Backbone:
């Protein structure tokens, strides 16, 4: 009888331990997933923005076909038409988001102390670069930099005295408006970039049609193959821009969900799963293109 | 015409100029192709402006786009007076450049 009594007490003790562990557990995997999704979005964006810059330059190369003589600046994109500064600012906004997600993941990891300082400095550097590249969007950048500045301060102040979970909760509560604001700036502006790429696609088609050889031969097949690949690239860039906007739009809800998971690790993670699925999907747009 | 339709309307007219260039030949075709390039550049300028969230008065450009769109349509068939069509397209191209320069 005593054996059963001891077994029963042991069972109660184990259940208590499991319960206590659940209360204090940080869902580190969810923070890793958030950072991973951010990294994937950043990689795809960098690829897409580079392709836009290259396609824009291609337009000036192909337009030169109608010139009898090329000059020093024939292939340069005029400053008032150059999309590069706009793309760099967008890339910096994504970099700031990803730096913040990296900081959260550092805070959530077991041996966080060594990583947190570096991640805090990276986020501070990202917000400084965001301010430097903002141009006429200075107010927008200041708002975001201010919000993430309070996150960095909170982390630095609390790192010694508070429990990791409390630091994370405070950081995420302070960071949520920054994530919301950054994600919102991508809505709509992405459609403008899609329109720019679609416009260049039409212009490209006009000029290749004007210079494409009319005689059917092997060289024509090669030229048409190149044209087909370029047209696919234009389409893939438009799809990718749409996908990037969609994926970034899912970050705020996933962030909010992970914040709530700090207090309830058993909570379903549908928003985070949707973000991960979208981040993975947008990596595939350029798979079928022939390497140039 | 709402501001947001200006890049879209200009892009449609760039395509209309291209379509007319296929129908017509000689000098008019060359002018129309140059206008296609110019209007394409205008679309990019307008997009850059909107990306910067600058919102100057678009009234003149919007009106020029509306006039040209009504007269030329999609440029898939001959129009009554090609010289008038070219003039309307030139007005759009100039109005958009002026809009961007003033901004």
Residues:
């Amino acid at each position: 009888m005593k054996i059963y009594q001891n077994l029963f007490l042991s069972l109660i003790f184990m259940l208590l331990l499991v319960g206590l562990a659940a209360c204090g557990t940080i869902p580190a995997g969810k923070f890793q997933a958030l950072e991973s999704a951010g990294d994937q979005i950043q990689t795809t964006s960098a690829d897409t923005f580079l392709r836009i810059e290259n396609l824009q330059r291609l337009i000036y190369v192909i337009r030169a076909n109608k010139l009898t003589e090329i000059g020093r600046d024939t292939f340069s994109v005029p400053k008032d038409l150059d999309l590069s500064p706009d793309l760099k600012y967008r890339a910096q906004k994504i970099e700031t988001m990803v730096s913040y997600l990296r900081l959260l993941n550092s805070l959530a990891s077991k041996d966080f102390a060594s990583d947190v300082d570096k991640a805090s400095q990276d986020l501070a550097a990202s917000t400084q670069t965001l301010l430097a590249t903002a141009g006429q969007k200075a107010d927008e950048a200041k708002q975001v930099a201010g919000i993430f500045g309070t996150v960095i301060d909170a982390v630095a102040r609390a790192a010694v005295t508070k429990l990791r979970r409390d630091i994370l909760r405070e950081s995420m509560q302070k960071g949520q408006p920054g994530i919301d604001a950054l994600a919102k700036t991508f809505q709509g502006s992405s459609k403008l970039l899609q329109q720019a790429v679609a416009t260049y696609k039409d212009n490209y088609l006009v000029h290749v049609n004007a210079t494409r050889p009319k005689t059917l031969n092997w060289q024509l097949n090669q030229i048409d193959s190149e044209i087909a690949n370029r047209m696919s690239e234009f389409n893939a860039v438009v799809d990718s821009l749409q996908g990037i906007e969609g994926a970034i739009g899912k970050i705020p809800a996933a962030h909010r969900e992970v914040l709530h998971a700090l207090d309830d690790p058993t909570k379903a993670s549908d928003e985070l799963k949707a973000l991960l699925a979208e981040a993975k999907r947008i990596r595939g747009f350029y798979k079928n293109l022939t390497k140039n | 015409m709402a501001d947001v339709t200006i890049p879209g309307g200009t892009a449609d007219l760039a395509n209309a100029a291209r379509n007319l260039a296929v129908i017509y030949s000689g000098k008019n075709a060359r002018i129309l192709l140059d206008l296609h390039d110019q209007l394409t550049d205008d679309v990019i300028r307008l997009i850059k402006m909107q990306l910067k969230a600058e919102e100057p008065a678009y009234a003149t450009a919007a009106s020029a786009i509306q006039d040209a769109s009504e007269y030329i349509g999609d440029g898939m068939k001959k129009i009554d007076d090609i010289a008038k069509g070219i003039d309307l397209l030139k007005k759009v191209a100039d109005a958009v450049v002026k809009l961007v320069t003033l901004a």
